[in-house]
Amino acid sequence: MRSAIKRPSEEDSNLTGFQLFNKLTKEEFNRLNYEKTCSLYKKGTIIYREGSRLTGFFCVTRGIVKIFKTGIDGKEQIIRFAKKGEIIAYRSLLSQELACTTAKVIDEAALCHVPYQTLLFLIQNNWQFSHHMLQIVCRELREANDYITDIAQKTVRERLAEVLLLLKDNFDLDNQNTLQISLTREELANMVGTATESVIRLLSEFKNDKMIELQGRKIKFLDIPTLTRVANL
Amino acid sequence: MRSAIKRPSEEDSNLTGFQLFNKLTKEEFNRLNYEKTCSLYKKGTIIYREGSRLTGFFCVTRGIVKIFKTGIDGKEQIIRFAKKGEIIAYRSLLSQELACTTAKVIDEAALCHVPYQTLLFLIQNNWQFSHHMLQIVCRELREANDYITDIAQKTVRERLAEVLLLLKDNFDLDNQNTLQISLTREELANMVGTATESVIRLLSEFKNDKMIELQGRKIKFLDIPTLTRVANL
DNA sequence: AAATTAGGATGTTATGAAGCATATAGTAGA
DNA sequence: TCTACTATATGCTTCATAACATCCTAATTT
Where is the Cyclic nucleotide-binding domain positioned along the sequence (chains A, B) (predicted)? Predict the structure, then answer.
């Protein structure tokens, strides 16, 4: 399951960039570093599966991980993507439930596994850590609530435009305004909550309307104001 | 805005039933009780509004509060209901954001307001409180994620059946299997994310298929297994 | 009792989006 | 390079559901 490849680099093991940990004492941070385990995962690897019991959470230090739920007849619903600086699997761990999502690597990734015991130690010893963690979950909850409203009230067209803008804000653009995350049409459909064909059709429309430009999976933004208007934001 | 009526009873001010507080020391609990403020609110009262700055969170000791977001052209999306023993407004407070939902009383309610300072004091002094709070948010986040998947993948028919079962599990039934929460068809529609007419039609269908019985807003469950099958659970 | 209002019910129509079929283009493997 | 496979594209058809238009019912007010 956990097909680690090569050895993680120094940078892959470095957790100093995580705001979550920036209020830890030197001792706490050392303990965290001692107890964590870092590995590399190639594209397609499943980090954990829906229904499994988790032994800790993961800090993403490189690459992109797709978090999704499996719905009716295996259709994926993408909940979010996690990139460098973000943590995954903490929700199920904290609520002491089985994993309710699956995490799959979509861009060669490096992850540090932090055991449950370490998490508990930090919660018990550093209120600022708990507080920070609370803020992270609360923000994610707001995003989830926002998305429920969108998906319940907006058209597929509006939601697709919104998802594109969301990707733009969360992932880098190159100097040509091209999205640096590569998703299949199906994955876009699984974010928006629609059929693959609908995404293909609407992307073509957006292209015809000069809002975006398409080259395979590369999406280049041409007219963000119009796209924003289409998204009904 | 905060139209309090009468004086809250002894029971309305009693927070001992809240699991969230059951690991507090005697001193902490006393401080909580000293700093909280309880009031009664009649049906229709807005407790807080989307976009407002919150000064604390609320513990519901009686009645039912509807939490919703306002979407396109004022259409409500109901996020959840809070009843006795549950807390509201904590999400925005913890993430230090403006309220992203509105809370409205739908069944005469009693609420205790706990100031932000008190919340912060508890987080700083009692890790078990923080831990408990983390679990509450994490559970709500799972429910939100589940709902995103449902709303994205299920039909309106399936979702309505599911919502009815959800209400059954979260609110009392009388000895006749009748739901003790009274919602308008529009409110049901705003939970399911559909049009009021669709809810009316589907409820009639469910009635014809002998799954439920309707008398005004009262919903009586006749055949839960079938309803569960319809919900695709 | 008349008047007002909000909620509920129902028929009709319009349409967004899914589903299916098929064609083409990339991409990876042997 | 051939092969196989997966992803993308596009037309056509079907269907669930939204939107609109009334009409009805019950509760509340005057």
Answer: 20-94
